[in-house]
Backbone:
């Protein structure tokens, strides 16, 4: 009797986790198709979406890698960011959760300094729990922009410059 109850709780718990992950993935998929919230991105390429920004980076890094390969050099411009991106997404979510759960503490201020002040606005991060996915998305977009566009983050041999919004044909 107790074993069946525990079994049902485990099954329902796992089902809840799966539904939550799929829902969050759907939310991120929808947000990735909307114009980026990063002001600099909109200034450089008005209307650019996260997917378009990421596709622009990959395409241009691949072009550099192809040129390097033609000269017998390595292909690191595209593969390194592609491998690191899942970590940036997970760490962005963890950063938001950490700052939210340690609101106003020295630990939270220290983390914010370590991530160069890239943190969602207070109304998202400290607002109601249902705004957390928006805070996570804000962190993912701004973290990706910070790591893959700003001039100090770009490696001299993988420089691709400002993003270009694809033309509509």
Residues:
């Amino acid at each position: 009797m107790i074993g069946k109850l525990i079994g049902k709780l485990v099954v329902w718990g796992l089902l809840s986790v799966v539904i939550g992950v799929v829902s969050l993935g759907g939310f991120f998929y929808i947000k990735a198709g909307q114009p980026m919230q990063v002001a600099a991105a909109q200034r450089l390429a008005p209307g650019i979406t996260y997917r378009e920004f990421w596709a622009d980076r990959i395409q241009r890094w691949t072009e550099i890698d192809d040129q390097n390969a033609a000269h017998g050099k390595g292909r690191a411009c595209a593969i390194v960011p592609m491998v690191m991106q899942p970590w940036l997404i997970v760490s962005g979510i963890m950063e938001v959760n950490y700052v939210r759960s340690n609101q106003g503490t020295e630990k939270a201020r220290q983390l914010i300094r370590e991530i160069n002040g890239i943190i969602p606005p207070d109304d998202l991060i400290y607002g109601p729990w249902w705004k957390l996915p928006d805070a996570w998305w804000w962190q993912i977009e701004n973290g990706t922009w910070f790591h893959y566009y700003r001039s100090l983050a770009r490696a001299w041999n993988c420089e691709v410059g400002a993003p270009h919004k694809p033309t509509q044909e």
Observations:
- The radius of gyration is 20 Å.
- The helical segments are 2-32, 39-44, 50-70, 79-101, 106-114, 122-125, 132-148.
- The mean pLDDT is 87.
- The CA atoms of residues 31 and 145 lie 15 Å apart.
